[in-house]
UniProtKB/TrEMBL annotation, chain A:
Belongs to the ABC transporter superfamily. The keyword rRNA processing does not apply. This is ABC-type quaternary amine transporter. Pfam families: ABC_tran. One of its GO terms (molecular function) is ATP binding. The keyword Magnesium does not apply. Residues 2-237 form the ABC transporter domain.
UniProtKB/TrEMBL annotation, chain B:
GO terms for cellular component: plasma membrane. InterPro entries: ABC_transp_perm/SBD, MetI-like, MetI-like_sf. Keywords: Membrane, Transmembrane, Transmembrane helix, Transport. It is a multi-pass membrane protein. The chain crosses the membrane at residues 40-57, 135-153, 159-181, 193-214. This is Osmoprotectant transport system permease protein.
Protein backbone atom coordinates (compact mmCIF):
# COMPACT_ATOMS: atom_id res chain seq x y z
CA UNK A 1 0.00 0.00 0.00
CA UNK A 2 1.16 3.49 -0.86
CA UNK A 3 0.15 6.22 1.55
CA UNK A 4 0.28 9.96 0.93
CA UNK A 5 0.24 11.69 4.29
CA UNK A 6 -0.36 15.43 3.96
CA UNK A 7 2.14 15.68 1.12
CA UNK A 8 3.02 19.11 -0.25
CA UNK A 9 5.40 19.98 -3.07
CA UNK A 10 6.45 23.59 -3.18
CA UNK A 11 9.03 24.82 -5.68
CA UNK A 12 11.66 27.43 -4.80
CA UNK A 13 9.73 30.08 -6.75
CA UNK A 14 6.76 29.53 -4.46
CA UNK A 15 4.60 27.53 -6.86
CA UNK A 16 2.66 24.83 -5.07
CA UNK A 17 2.30 21.75 -7.30
CA UNK A 18 0.75 19.45 -4.71
CA UNK A 19 -1.10 20.77 -1.69
CA UNK A 20 -1.47 18.62 1.46
CA UNK A 21 -2.46 15.54 -0.48
CA UNK A 22 -3.57 12.57 1.56
CA UNK A 23 -4.63 9.37 -0.09
CA UNK A 24 -4.00 5.65 -0.14
CA UNK A 25 -3.30 3.40 -3.07
CA UNK A 26 -4.32 -0.04 -1.78
CA UNK A 27 -2.22 -3.11 -2.47
CA UNK A 28 -3.20 -5.05 -5.58
CA UNK A 29 -5.39 -2.29 -6.98
CA UNK A 30 -5.12 0.29 -9.73
CA UNK A 31 -5.36 3.82 -8.35
CA UNK A 32 -5.70 6.42 -11.07
CA UNK A 33 -4.68 10.04 -10.55
CA UNK A 34 -6.60 12.16 -13.01
CA UNK A 35 -7.06 15.86 -13.50
CA UNK A 36 -6.40 18.80 -15.80
CA UNK A 37 -2.83 19.89 -16.49
CA UNK A 38 -1.32 21.68 -13.53
CA UNK A 39 -3.15 19.51 -11.01
CA UNK A 40 0.07 17.93 -9.79
CA UNK A 41 -0.77 14.37 -10.79
CA UNK A 42 2.59 13.63 -12.38
CA UNK A 43 4.42 15.40 -9.56
CA UNK A 44 2.55 13.23 -7.05
CA UNK A 45 3.48 10.08 -8.95
CA UNK A 46 7.13 11.06 -9.22
CA UNK A 47 7.33 11.74 -5.51
CA UNK A 48 6.63 8.05 -4.86
CA UNK A 49 9.90 6.90 -6.46
CA UNK A 50 11.67 10.09 -5.41
CA UNK A 51 12.22 11.43 -8.91
CA UNK A 52 10.95 14.50 -7.04
CA UNK A 53 11.19 14.93 -3.30
CA UNK A 54 8.23 16.13 -1.29
CA UNK A 55 8.61 19.45 0.53
CA UNK A 56 6.35 18.49 3.42
CA UNK A 57 4.51 15.42 4.55
CA UNK A 58 5.42 11.81 4.02
CA UNK A 59 4.92 9.11 1.46
CA UNK A 60 4.90 5.61 2.89
CA UNK A 61 5.46 2.38 1.01
CA UNK A 62 3.87 -0.37 3.10
CA UNK A 63 4.43 1.82 6.12
CA UNK A 64 8.07 2.70 5.33
CA UNK A 65 8.77 6.36 4.50
CA UNK A 66 10.37 6.59 1.07
CA UNK A 67 12.49 9.55 2.12
CA UNK A 68 14.65 7.14 4.10
CA UNK A 69 15.50 4.97 1.11
CA UNK A 70 18.39 5.70 -1.25
CA UNK A 71 16.66 6.75 -4.51
CA UNK A 72 18.34 4.29 -6.94
CA UNK A 73 17.65 1.39 -4.56
CA UNK A 74 14.06 2.54 -4.11
CA UNK A 75 13.53 2.86 -7.87
CA UNK A 76 14.88 -0.60 -8.65
CA UNK A 77 12.08 -1.97 -6.52
CA UNK A 78 9.36 0.05 -8.26
CA UNK A 79 8.31 -0.41 -11.88
CA UNK A 80 8.17 2.84 -13.83
CA UNK A 81 6.49 3.35 -17.18
CA UNK A 82 6.54 6.73 -18.90
CA UNK A 83 4.98 8.32 -21.93
CA UNK A 84 6.91 7.59 -25.16
CA UNK A 85 8.26 4.47 -23.39
CA UNK A 86 11.74 5.99 -22.96
CA UNK A 87 13.48 2.87 -24.22
CA UNK A 88 17.26 2.91 -24.53
CA UNK A 89 17.82 3.24 -28.29
CA UNK A 90 21.27 1.62 -28.25
CA UNK A 91 20.09 -1.58 -26.60
CA UNK A 92 18.19 -4.45 -28.10
CA UNK A 93 14.64 -5.00 -26.90
CA UNK A 94 15.61 -7.98 -24.74
CA UNK A 95 18.33 -5.95 -23.01
CA UNK A 96 15.99 -3.01 -22.53
CA UNK A 97 13.57 -5.29 -20.71
CA UNK A 98 16.41 -6.76 -18.65
CA UNK A 99 17.64 -3.32 -17.50
CA UNK A 100 16.65 -3.63 -13.86
CA UNK A 101 17.62 -7.30 -13.48
CA UNK A 102 21.09 -6.35 -14.82
CA UNK A 103 21.26 -3.52 -12.28
CA UNK A 104 20.29 -5.92 -9.53
CA UNK A 105 23.21 -8.10 -10.56
CA UNK A 106 21.24 -11.02 -11.93
CA UNK A 107 23.10 -13.54 -13.99
CA UNK A 108 22.97 -12.37 -17.63
CA UNK A 109 21.28 -15.47 -18.86
CA UNK A 110 18.65 -15.50 -16.15
CA UNK A 111 17.92 -11.82 -16.83
CA UNK A 112 17.48 -12.50 -20.55
CA UNK A 113 15.26 -15.52 -19.94
CA UNK A 114 13.11 -13.39 -17.70
CA UNK A 115 12.98 -10.67 -20.38
CA UNK A 116 11.84 -13.15 -23.01
CA UNK A 117 9.13 -14.42 -20.71
CA UNK A 118 7.89 -10.88 -20.14
CA UNK A 119 7.83 -10.03 -23.84
CA UNK A 120 5.34 -12.83 -24.30
CA UNK A 121 3.42 -11.76 -21.25
CA UNK A 122 2.80 -8.29 -22.66
CA UNK A 123 1.73 -9.73 -26.00
CA UNK A 124 4.86 -9.23 -28.08
CA UNK A 125 6.32 -11.68 -30.53
CA UNK A 126 9.60 -13.08 -29.11
CA UNK A 127 11.19 -12.49 -32.52
CA UNK A 128 11.22 -8.78 -31.65
CA UNK A 129 13.72 -9.41 -28.85
CA UNK A 130 16.75 -8.91 -31.09
CA UNK A 131 15.52 -5.66 -32.62
CA UNK A 132 16.25 -2.14 -31.59
CA UNK A 133 13.56 0.25 -30.33
CA UNK A 134 13.46 2.31 -33.54
CA UNK A 135 12.37 -0.80 -35.42
CA UNK A 136 9.17 -1.08 -33.36
CA UNK A 137 5.87 0.79 -33.64
CA UNK A 138 4.81 3.17 -30.88
CA UNK A 139 2.39 0.66 -29.42
CA UNK A 140 5.00 -2.09 -29.40
CA UNK A 141 7.51 0.22 -27.74
CA UNK A 142 4.98 1.00 -25.05
CA UNK A 143 4.47 -2.73 -24.42
CA UNK A 144 8.23 -3.10 -24.09
CA UNK A 145 8.12 -0.21 -21.60
CA UNK A 146 5.59 -2.16 -19.53
CA UNK A 147 7.66 -5.35 -19.78
CA UNK A 148 10.75 -3.44 -18.65
CA UNK A 149 8.90 -2.09 -15.63
CA UNK A 150 7.78 -5.59 -14.68
CA UNK A 151 11.14 -7.30 -15.24
CA UNK A 152 12.29 -7.53 -11.65
CA UNK A 153 8.76 -8.35 -10.50
CA UNK A 154 8.29 -5.21 -8.38
CA UNK A 155 5.17 -5.11 -6.20
CA UNK A 156 4.49 -1.50 -7.22
CA UNK A 157 4.08 -0.06 -10.70
CA UNK A 158 4.02 3.65 -11.48
CA UNK A 159 2.60 4.60 -14.87
CA UNK A 160 2.84 8.19 -16.06
CA UNK A 161 0.46 8.75 -18.98
CA UNK A 162 1.86 5.63 -20.61
CA UNK A 163 -0.70 5.33 -23.37
CA UNK A 164 -1.34 8.94 -24.31
CA UNK A 165 1.09 9.07 -27.23
CA UNK A 166 -0.40 6.21 -29.25
CA UNK A 167 -3.45 6.22 -31.53
CA UNK A 168 -6.87 5.40 -30.04
CA UNK A 169 -7.09 1.85 -31.39
CA UNK A 170 -3.67 0.88 -30.04
CA UNK A 171 -4.46 2.70 -26.81
CA UNK A 172 -7.58 0.59 -26.31
CA UNK A 173 -5.63 -2.61 -26.89
CA UNK A 174 -2.91 -1.50 -24.46
CA UNK A 175 -5.53 -0.69 -21.82
CA UNK A 176 -7.17 -4.08 -22.26
CA UNK A 177 -3.77 -5.71 -22.04
CA UNK A 178 -2.99 -3.87 -18.81
CA UNK A 179 -6.26 -5.03 -17.26
CA UNK A 180 -5.56 -8.61 -18.36
CA UNK A 181 -2.04 -8.43 -16.91
CA UNK A 182 -3.28 -6.92 -13.69
CA UNK A 183 -5.79 -9.75 -13.28
CA UNK A 184 -2.81 -12.14 -13.34
CA UNK A 185 -0.25 -10.11 -11.43
CA UNK A 186 -2.17 -8.10 -8.82
CA UNK A 187 0.33 -5.26 -8.64
CA UNK A 188 -0.19 -2.07 -6.71
CA UNK A 189 -0.48 0.35 -9.60
CA UNK A 190 -0.60 4.13 -9.56
CA UNK A 191 -1.62 5.38 -12.97
CA UNK A 192 -1.59 9.01 -14.10
CA UNK A 193 -3.74 10.22 -16.96
CA UNK A 194 -5.59 13.35 -18.07
CA UNK A 195 -8.18 11.21 -19.83
CA UNK A 196 -11.21 10.60 -17.62
CA UNK A 197 -12.41 7.72 -19.84
CA UNK A 198 -9.10 5.96 -19.33
CA UNK A 199 -9.34 6.62 -15.59
CA UNK A 200 -12.81 5.12 -15.38
CA UNK A 201 -11.89 2.15 -17.51
CA UNK A 202 -8.71 1.24 -15.64
CA UNK A 203 -9.16 2.46 -12.12
CA UNK A 204 -10.29 0.44 -9.14
CA UNK A 205 -10.15 3.83 -7.46
CA UNK A 206 -9.95 7.20 -9.15
CA UNK A 207 -8.50 10.28 -7.49
CA UNK A 208 -9.62 13.48 -9.22
CA UNK A 209 -7.19 16.31 -8.57
CA UNK A 210 -7.84 19.96 -9.22
CA UNK A 211 -5.41 22.65 -10.33
CA UNK A 212 -3.18 23.58 -7.43
CA UNK A 213 -2.74 19.98 -6.39
CA UNK A 214 -5.65 19.33 -4.07
CA UNK A 215 -7.79 16.22 -4.01
CA UNK A 216 -11.31 16.84 -5.29
CA UNK A 217 -12.66 13.32 -4.92
CA UNK A 218 -11.38 9.81 -4.37
CA UNK A 219 -13.84 7.08 -5.23
CA UNK A 220 -14.42 3.99 -7.29
CA UNK A 221 -15.51 4.82 -10.86
CA UNK A 222 -19.14 3.93 -10.32
CA UNK A 223 -19.50 6.21 -7.31
CA UNK A 224 -17.59 8.93 -9.12
CA UNK A 225 -20.07 8.85 -11.99
CA UNK A 226 -23.19 8.58 -9.86
CA UNK A 227 -22.21 10.87 -7.02
CA UNK A 228 -19.63 13.47 -8.08
CA UNK A 229 -18.47 15.42 -5.04
CA UNK A 230 -18.82 18.89 -6.52
CA UNK A 231 -19.22 20.94 -9.69
CA UNK A 232 -15.55 20.62 -10.58
CA UNK A 233 -15.71 16.84 -10.63
CA UNK A 234 -19.08 16.90 -12.41
CA UNK A 235 -17.67 19.15 -15.12
CA UNK A 236 -14.49 17.14 -15.41
CA UNK A 237 -16.48 13.95 -15.90
CA UNK A 238 -18.12 15.51 -18.95
CA UNK A 239 -21.63 15.61 -20.32
CA UNK A 240 -22.17 11.93 -21.02
CA UNK A 241 -21.64 10.95 -17.42
CA UNK A 242 -25.09 9.32 -17.35
CA UNK A 243 -24.38 7.14 -20.38
CA UNK A 244 -20.97 6.16 -19.07
CA UNK A 245 -22.46 5.13 -15.77
CA UNK A 246 -24.35 2.42 -17.63
CA UNK A 247 -21.11 0.56 -18.17
CA UNK A 248 -21.25 -0.36 -14.51
CA UNK A 249 -24.82 -1.66 -14.69
CA UNK A 250 -24.97 -5.40 -15.40
CA UNK A 251 -27.23 -6.92 -18.04
CA UNK A 252 -27.97 -10.04 -16.07
CA UNK A 253 -31.26 -8.60 -14.79
CA UNK A 254 -32.65 -7.70 -18.22
CA UNK A 255 -36.00 -9.24 -19.18
CA UNK A 256 -35.59 -11.11 -22.43
CA UNK A 257 -38.13 -12.27 -24.97
CA UNK A 258 -37.45 -15.56 -26.68
CA UNK A 259 -40.49 -15.61 -28.96
CA UNK A 260 -38.96 -12.99 -31.30
CA UNK A 261 -36.07 -15.27 -32.27
CA UNK A 262 -37.24 -17.62 -35.00
CA UNK A 263 -35.61 -20.75 -36.38
CA UNK A 264 -34.82 -20.95 -40.13
CA UNK A 265 -37.87 -21.44 -42.29
CA UNK A 266 -40.37 -20.61 -39.57
CA UNK A 267 -42.40 -17.40 -39.61
CA UNK A 268 -42.43 -14.69 -36.99
CA UNK A 269 -45.01 -14.20 -34.26
CA UNK A 270 -48.18 -12.40 -35.25
CA UNK A 271 -48.53 -8.71 -34.62
CA UNK A 272 -44.81 -8.01 -34.34
CA UNK A 273 -43.25 -5.66 -36.89
CA UNK A 274 -39.88 -7.47 -36.70
CA UNK A 275 -38.53 -10.87 -35.84
CA UNK A 276 -34.98 -12.17 -35.55
CA UNK A 277 -34.01 -14.89 -38.01
CA UNK A 278 -31.58 -17.46 -36.64
CA UNK A 279 -28.95 -19.53 -38.42
CA UNK A 280 -29.14 -23.34 -38.07
CA UNK A 281 -26.46 -23.02 -35.36
CA UNK A 282 -28.66 -20.66 -33.35
CA UNK A 283 -26.68 -17.54 -34.12
CA UNK A 284 -28.35 -14.33 -35.27
CA UNK A 285 -28.81 -13.98 -39.05
CA UNK A 286 -30.64 -10.63 -39.11
CA UNK A 287 -33.86 -8.79 -38.39
CA UNK A 288 -36.76 -9.52 -40.76
CA UNK A 289 -39.58 -6.98 -41.30
CA UNK A 290 -43.03 -8.56 -41.26
CA UNK A 291 -44.10 -7.27 -44.66
CA UNK A 292 -40.83 -8.19 -46.42
CA UNK A 293 -39.91 -11.70 -45.22
CA UNK A 294 -36.99 -11.92 -47.68
CA UNK A 295 -35.08 -8.99 -46.20
CA UNK A 296 -32.38 -9.29 -43.53
CA UNK A 297 -31.44 -6.17 -41.61
CA UNK A 298 -28.38 -5.65 -39.46
CA UNK A 299 -28.44 -6.36 -35.75
CA UNK A 300 -26.46 -5.55 -32.60
CA UNK A 301 -25.55 -8.06 -29.92
CA UNK A 302 -24.32 -8.04 -26.36
CA UNK A 303 -23.05 -10.92 -24.25
CA UNK A 304 -25.58 -11.49 -21.52
CA UNK A 305 -24.12 -11.12 -18.03
CA UNK A 306 -20.65 -10.11 -19.26
CA UNK A 307 -21.38 -6.90 -21.15
CA UNK A 308 -22.84 -3.85 -19.47
CA UNK A 309 -26.15 -2.13 -20.00
CA UNK A 310 -24.22 0.42 -22.07
CA UNK A 311 -23.33 -2.32 -24.57
CA UNK A 312 -26.95 -3.53 -24.63
CA UNK A 313 -28.17 0.00 -25.33
CA UNK A 314 -25.56 0.36 -28.04
CA UNK A 315 -26.69 -2.94 -29.57
CA UNK A 316 -30.29 -1.74 -29.61
CA UNK A 317 -29.33 1.49 -31.33
CA UNK A 318 -27.56 -0.48 -34.08
CA UNK A 319 -30.68 -2.46 -35.00
CA UNK A 320 -33.55 -1.04 -37.09
CA UNK A 321 -35.91 -3.03 -34.85
CA UNK A 322 -34.68 -1.12 -31.82
CA UNK A 323 -34.04 -4.36 -29.95
CA UNK A 324 -30.74 -5.73 -28.69
CA UNK A 325 -29.85 -9.38 -29.25
CA UNK A 326 -28.55 -11.16 -26.16
CA UNK A 327 -26.03 -13.89 -26.93
CA UNK A 328 -24.03 -16.29 -24.80
CA UNK A 329 -20.25 -16.62 -24.78
CA UNK A 330 -20.36 -18.70 -27.97
CA UNK A 331 -22.41 -16.15 -29.87
CA UNK A 332 -25.64 -18.16 -29.71
CA UNK A 333 -28.84 -16.22 -29.23
CA UNK A 334 -30.27 -16.33 -25.71
CA UNK A 335 -33.11 -13.88 -26.25
CA UNK A 336 -34.00 -10.38 -27.28
CA UNK A 337 -34.10 -7.27 -25.10
CA UNK A 338 -36.83 -5.01 -26.41
CA UNK A 339 -37.05 -1.24 -26.02
CA UNK A 340 -39.53 -1.75 -23.18
CA UNK A 341 -37.15 -4.06 -21.33
CA UNK A 342 -34.27 -1.63 -21.81
CA UNK A 343 -36.45 1.27 -20.68
CA UNK A 344 -37.29 -0.52 -17.46
CA UNK A 345 -33.62 -1.36 -16.85
CA UNK A 346 -32.62 2.27 -17.51
CA UNK A 347 -35.25 3.51 -15.10
CA UNK A 348 -33.88 1.18 -12.44
CA UNK A 349 -30.34 2.31 -13.14
CA UNK A 350 -31.37 5.95 -12.78
CA UNK A 351 -32.84 5.20 -9.38
CA UNK A 352 -29.78 3.35 -8.12
CA UNK B 1 47.25 18.97 -70.63
CA UNK B 2 50.80 20.05 -69.99
CA UNK B 3 50.16 20.68 -66.28
CA UNK B 4 48.94 17.13 -65.90
CA UNK B 5 52.02 15.76 -67.63
CA UNK B 6 54.35 17.72 -65.45
CA UNK B 7 52.29 16.82 -62.36
CA UNK B 8 52.57 13.13 -63.17
CA UNK B 9 56.20 13.63 -64.01
CA UNK B 10 56.88 15.17 -60.61
CA UNK B 11 54.94 12.44 -58.90
CA UNK B 12 56.94 9.77 -60.70
CA UNK B 13 60.16 11.53 -59.89
CA UNK B 14 59.25 11.83 -56.18
CA UNK B 15 57.90 8.38 -55.56
CA UNK B 16 60.35 6.74 -57.96
CA UNK B 17 63.42 8.04 -56.18
CA UNK B 18 64.80 5.25 -53.96
CA UNK B 19 66.44 7.89 -51.73
CA UNK B 20 62.95 9.04 -50.74
CA UNK B 21 62.11 5.65 -49.26
CA UNK B 22 64.85 5.28 -46.66
CA UNK B 23 66.74 7.21 -44.02
CA UNK B 24 65.54 9.98 -41.67
CA UNK B 25 64.25 12.03 -44.59
CA UNK B 26 62.50 9.11 -46.24
CA UNK B 27 58.74 8.74 -46.62
CA UNK B 28 58.33 6.02 -43.93
CA UNK B 29 60.20 8.11 -41.36
CA UNK B 30 58.32 11.33 -42.23
CA UNK B 31 55.00 9.48 -42.20
CA UNK B 32 55.77 8.05 -38.77
CA UNK B 33 56.71 11.49 -37.44
CA UNK B 34 53.54 12.99 -38.82
CA UNK B 35 51.48 10.23 -37.28
CA UNK B 36 53.24 10.57 -33.93
CA UNK B 37 52.77 14.34 -33.65
CA UNK B 38 49.13 14.13 -34.69
CA UNK B 39 48.33 11.18 -32.47
CA UNK B 40 50.05 12.71 -29.45
CA UNK B 41 48.27 16.03 -29.89
CA UNK B 42 44.90 14.35 -30.42
CA UNK B 43 45.37 12.01 -27.46
CA UNK B 44 46.16 14.92 -25.15
CA UNK B 45 43.19 16.86 -26.47
CA UNK B 46 40.89 13.87 -25.89
CA UNK B 47 42.21 13.47 -22.35
CA UNK B 48 41.30 17.06 -21.61
CA UNK B 49 38.18 17.66 -23.69
CA UNK B 50 36.20 14.43 -23.35
CA UNK B 51 36.03 14.31 -19.53
CA UNK B 52 35.30 18.03 -19.33
CA UNK B 53 32.64 17.79 -22.04
CA UNK B 54 31.02 14.77 -20.35
CA UNK B 55 31.06 16.47 -16.95
CA UNK B 56 29.58 19.73 -18.20
CA UNK B 57 27.01 17.97 -20.36
CA UNK B 58 25.93 15.64 -17.57
CA UNK B 59 25.79 18.15 -14.71
CA UNK B 60 24.84 21.22 -16.71
CA UNK B 61 27.41 23.18 -14.71
CA UNK B 62 30.20 25.18 -16.36
CA UNK B 63 28.49 25.69 -19.70
CA UNK B 64 30.39 28.96 -20.08
CA UNK B 65 33.57 26.94 -20.63
CA UNK B 66 32.01 25.38 -23.71
CA UNK B 67 30.92 28.73 -25.12
CA UNK B 68 34.37 30.22 -24.60
CA UNK B 69 36.04 27.17 -26.15
CA UNK B 70 33.75 27.30 -29.17
CA UNK B 71 34.48 30.98 -29.74
CA UNK B 72 38.21 30.56 -29.22
CA UNK B 73 38.24 27.84 -31.82
CA UNK B 74 36.90 30.28 -34.38
CA UNK B 75 39.09 33.17 -33.33
CA UNK B 76 42.47 31.51 -32.79
CA UNK B 77 44.90 31.79 -35.73
CA UNK B 78 46.74 28.49 -35.59
CA UNK B 79 49.86 29.63 -37.35
CA UNK B 80 50.10 32.66 -35.06
CA UNK B 81 49.83 30.55 -31.94
CA UNK B 82 52.38 28.12 -33.33
CA UNK B 83 54.90 30.86 -34.01
CA UNK B 84 54.23 32.41 -30.62
CA UNK B 85 54.94 29.17 -28.77
CA UNK B 86 58.06 28.54 -30.81
CA UNK B 87 59.31 32.03 -29.97
CA UNK B 88 58.50 31.49 -26.29
CA UNK B 89 59.77 27.94 -25.88
CA UNK B 90 62.37 27.55 -28.60
CA UNK B 91 62.64 24.55 -30.89
CA UNK B 92 64.61 22.20 -28.70
CA UNK B 93 61.55 20.07 -27.93
CA UNK B 94 58.35 19.13 -29.73
CA UNK B 95 56.13 20.92 -27.17
CA UNK B 96 56.01 24.32 -28.88
CA UNK B 97 54.29 22.49 -31.72
CA UNK B 98 52.25 20.03 -29.73
CA UNK B 99 50.67 22.62 -27.43
CA UNK B 100 49.11 24.71 -30.23
CA UNK B 101 47.92 21.50 -31.88
CA UNK B 102 46.22 20.45 -28.64
CA UNK B 103 44.69 23.91 -28.26
CA UNK B 104 43.38 23.53 -31.78
CA UNK B 105 42.01 20.06 -31.19
CA UNK B 106 40.25 20.66 -27.86
CA UNK B 107 37.30 22.89 -28.90
CA UNK B 108 35.64 20.60 -31.48
CA UNK B 109 35.89 17.62 -29.13
CA UNK B 110 34.69 19.60 -26.12
CA UNK B 111 31.80 21.25 -27.93
CA UNK B 112 30.58 18.08 -29.62
CA UNK B 113 30.91 15.93 -26.51
CA UNK B 114 28.96 18.51 -24.53
CA UNK B 115 26.31 18.93 -27.23
CA UNK B 116 26.01 15.18 -27.63
CA UNK B 117 25.35 14.57 -23.94
CA UNK B 118 23.15 17.63 -23.62
CA UNK B 119 21.13 16.66 -26.65
CA UNK B 120 20.02 13.26 -25.34
CA UNK B 121 16.23 13.32 -25.03
CA UNK B 122 15.12 14.26 -21.52
CA UNK B 123 12.68 11.31 -21.42
CA UNK B 124 15.59 8.95 -21.88
CA UNK B 125 17.50 10.49 -19.02
CA UNK B 126 14.33 10.38 -16.97
CA UNK B 127 13.71 6.72 -17.80
CA UNK B 128 17.31 5.85 -16.91
CA UNK B 129 17.06 7.47 -13.48
CA UNK B 130 13.58 6.03 -13.04
CA UNK B 131 14.88 2.50 -13.61
CA UNK B 132 17.29 3.04 -10.74
CA UNK B 133 20.55 3.80 -12.53
CA UNK B 134 22.94 5.95 -10.54
CA UNK B 135 24.37 9.18 -11.98
CA UNK B 136 27.55 7.57 -13.28
CA UNK B 137 25.61 4.66 -14.74
CA UNK B 138 23.23 7.02 -16.50
CA UNK B 139 26.23 8.74 -18.07
CA UNK B 140 28.20 5.63 -18.95
CA UNK B 141 25.44 3.21 -19.87
CA UNK B 142 22.96 5.52 -21.54
CA UNK B 143 24.17 9.04 -22.34
CA UNK B 144 27.58 8.18 -23.81
CA UNK B 145 26.35 5.35 -26.09
CA UNK B 146 23.54 7.55 -27.36
CA UNK B 147 25.79 10.61 -27.80
CA UNK B 148 28.64 8.60 -29.33
CA UNK B 149 28.07 9.66 -32.96
CA UNK B 150 28.48 13.33 -32.00
CA UNK B 151 31.44 12.63 -29.71
CA UNK B 152 33.17 10.77 -32.53
CA UNK B 153 32.31 13.55 -34.95
CA UNK B 154 34.18 15.97 -32.70
CA UNK B 155 37.13 13.62 -32.58
CA UNK B 156 37.16 13.28 -36.33
CA UNK B 157 36.99 17.02 -36.95
CA UNK B 158 39.85 17.52 -34.54
CA UNK B 159 41.89 14.72 -36.05
CA UNK B 160 41.57 16.14 -39.56
CA UNK B 161 42.52 19.59 -38.36
CA UNK B 162 45.48 18.28 -36.41
CA UNK B 163 46.73 16.22 -39.34
CA UNK B 164 46.44 19.23 -41.63
CA UNK B 165 48.06 21.62 -39.17
CA UNK B 166 50.91 19.28 -38.33
CA UNK B 167 52.07 20.07 -41.88
CA UNK B 168 52.59 23.65 -40.81
CA UNK B 169 54.77 22.41 -37.96
CA UNK B 170 57.48 21.92 -40.54
CA UNK B 171 57.91 25.70 -40.58
CA UNK B 172 59.47 25.46 -37.15
CA UNK B 173 61.96 22.88 -38.27
CA UNK B 174 60.11 19.83 -37.05
CA UNK B 175 59.65 16.72 -39.14
CA UNK B 176 56.53 15.27 -40.62
CA UNK B 177 55.19 15.30 -44.15
CA UNK B 178 55.20 19.10 -44.23
CA UNK B 179 58.98 18.97 -44.62
CA UNK B 180 58.63 17.85 -48.26
CA UNK B 181 56.38 20.78 -49.10
CA UNK B 182 58.29 23.47 -47.26
CA UNK B 183 61.75 22.27 -48.18
CA UNK B 184 60.58 21.69 -51.72
CA UNK B 185 59.43 25.29 -52.03
CA UNK B 186 62.66 26.53 -50.52
CA UNK B 187 64.80 24.61 -53.03
CA UNK B 188 62.35 24.89 -55.94
CA UNK B 189 62.14 21.08 -55.94
CA UNK B 190 58.57 20.81 -57.23
CA UNK B 191 58.52 17.03 -57.30
CA UNK B 192 59.02 17.15 -53.54
CA UNK B 193 56.21 19.73 -53.12
CA UNK B 194 53.77 17.73 -55.21
CA UNK B 195 54.70 14.38 -53.72
CA UNK B 196 54.46 15.76 -50.18
CA UNK B 197 51.05 17.31 -50.86
CA UNK B 198 49.72 14.08 -52.25
CA UNK B 199 50.99 12.21 -49.21
CA UNK B 200 49.31 14.72 -46.85
CA UNK B 201 45.99 14.48 -48.64
CA UNK B 202 46.19 10.69 -48.67
CA UNK B 203 47.04 10.68 -44.98
CA UNK B 204 44.02 12.85 -44.17
CA UNK B 205 41.77 10.55 -46.18
CA UNK B 206 43.10 7.50 -44.35
CA UNK B 207 42.36 9.22 -41.02
CA UNK B 208 38.82 9.94 -42.20
CA UNK B 209 38.37 6.33 -43.21
CA UNK B 210 39.76 5.12 -39.90
CA UNK B 211 37.23 7.19 -37.98
CA UNK B 212 34.38 5.99 -40.15
CA UNK B 213 35.44 2.45 -39.33
CA UNK B 214 35.65 3.20 -35.61
CA UNK B 215 32.18 4.71 -35.78
CA UNK B 216 30.84 1.63 -37.52
CA UNK B 217 32.23 -0.64 -34.85
CA UNK B 218 31.44 1.37 -31.73
CA UNK B 219 28.08 3.04 -32.40
CA UNK B 220 25.09 0.81 -31.71
CA UNK B 221 22.98 0.05 -34.79
CA UNK B 222 20.04 1.16 -32.67
CA UNK B 223 21.52 4.66 -32.51
CA UNK B 224 22.91 4.94 -36.03
CA UNK B 225 19.75 3.25 -37.36
CA UNK B 226 21.92 1.47 -39.86
CA UNK B 227 19.66 -1.55 -39.84
CA UNK B 228 16.80 -1.77 -42.24
CA UNK B 229 13.47 -1.24 -40.54
CA UNK B 230 11.74 -4.54 -40.89
CA UNK B 231 8.00 -4.43 -40.63
CA UNK B 232 7.15 -6.27 -37.44
CA UNK B 233 4.44 -8.93 -37.65
CA UNK B 234 1.12 -7.14 -37.56
CA UNK B 235 -0.93 -9.83 -35.90
CA UNK B 236 -0.26 -8.98 -32.25
CA UNK B 237 -1.08 -5.31 -32.51
CA UNK B 238 -4.29 -5.71 -34.42
CA UNK B 239 -5.73 -8.87 -33.00
CA UNK B 240 -5.99 -7.74 -29.42
Amino acid sequence: MITFDEVTKRYPDGTVAVDRLSLEAPTGEITVLVGPSGCGKTTSLRMINRMIDASEGRILLDGVPVEGIDPPTLRRGIGYVIQQAGLFPHRKIVDNVATVPYLLGWDRRKARDRAMELLERVGLDPSLAGRYPFQLSGGQQQRVGVARALAADPPVLLMDEPFSAVDPIVRTSLQDELLRLQAELNKTIVFVTHDIDEAIKLGDRVAVLRVGGTLAQLADPKTLLSRPADDFVREFLGHDRGIRRLQFVPTSGLELRTDLAVAPGASGPDGEPWHLALTPEGRPAGWVPRDEPERLERYGTFVLGRDSLRSALDAALLSPSGCAVAVDGDGKVVGVATRDALDRALAEAADG
Amino acid sequence: MSWLTSFLGWLGEFFGDPANWSGPGGIPARLTEHLEFSALALALAVLVAVPVGLAIGHTGRGQLVVVVAANLARALPTLGVLVLFVLLLGTSSIWPVIIPLVLLAVPPILVNTYEGIRGVEPELRDAAYGMGLRGGQVLGQVLVPVALPLILLGLRLSAIQVVATTTVAAYTGLGGLGRYVIDGFATKDYSSVVGGSVLIVAFALVVQAAFTLVQRVTVSPGVSRRLKVRQPPARKENSR
